[in-house]
Amino acid sequence: MDLGLRGKVALVTGAGSGIGRAIALALGAEGARVVPTDLKGDTAEATAQEIVARGGEAWARTLDVTDFAQAQQVVREVVARFGRLDVLVNCAGAWRLNLFVDSTPEDWDFEVKVCFMGVVNCTRAVLDQMIAQQSGKIVNISSDAGRVGEVRQAVYSGAKAAVIGFSKAVAKEVGRYNIHVNCVCPGYTKTPATERYLTPELEARIVKAYPLRKLGLPEDVAKAVVFLASEGASHITGQTLSVSGGYSMV
Ligand SMILES: NC(=O)c1ccc[n+]([C@@H]2O[C@H](COP(=O)([O-])OP(=O)(O)OC[C@H]3O[C@@H](n4cnc5c(N)ncnc54)[C@H](O)[C@@H]3O)[C@@H](O)[C@H]2O)c1
What we know:
Oligomer: single chain
Bound molecules: nicotinamide-adenine-dinucleotide
Strand content: 5-15%
Number of helices: 9
């Protein structure tokens, strides 16, 4: 099935690792012209090189999503180079595992800034171009933590829930311009971030809570994102799709 992504310009944040990297690769495989971005520019560049090595087109940029001016600048550069911007995937994220009573205001600020304000900054940065084009697809990576709450991730869960509410509100405001805004909520997914603390015992315990009895892979999330970024999702906006082996059913 042709998803209609060939030649589309797609900016992915947090594309240097894990889920964002898999999304960038998957969009590249569909023929999109991909702009992998990351706080760590060298990792975004590595993703771009991988896309090109697989026969795709990519142009990496360094982007700290907490910096609105930087997001605006990267969008200006992308539009100057390609003349348009069709897809934004907000995937950059980070978290610290601790009980809420043990966390500090600095932890709260960090998680809200990256996980929520990062989405706000990048979304605002692309909207003028998408409104001018009268088209655009924005896919925000939230989390099942934002739907059901996760122990040791209280403020992160709140920030991810905020992403869902924000996405719905923006979807209502910009639908008239043919701009779609949807959320994907991964459950526990094996990435460099989670593999830092995932022991075989912990994995066995988590898997029991997942009806499909397995943890997700970055590629599982990427498939859903590619669909929502494609023509296949031509009449879908304001929706929240869990990719979590059935962990949350809401
Ligand atoms: N892995 C999971 O189990 C899981 C579950 C639910 C949701 N998520 C979400 O998926 C997304 C990707 O997570 P992952 O597991 O692939 O993590 P990861 O650490 O492997 O990748 C995250 C990337 O985001 C980048 N990043 C961090 N702060 C940034 C900033 N300020 N600006 C730009 N880039 C920044 C990092 O450098 C890294 O390359 C996150 O939003 C995360 O909250 C992950």
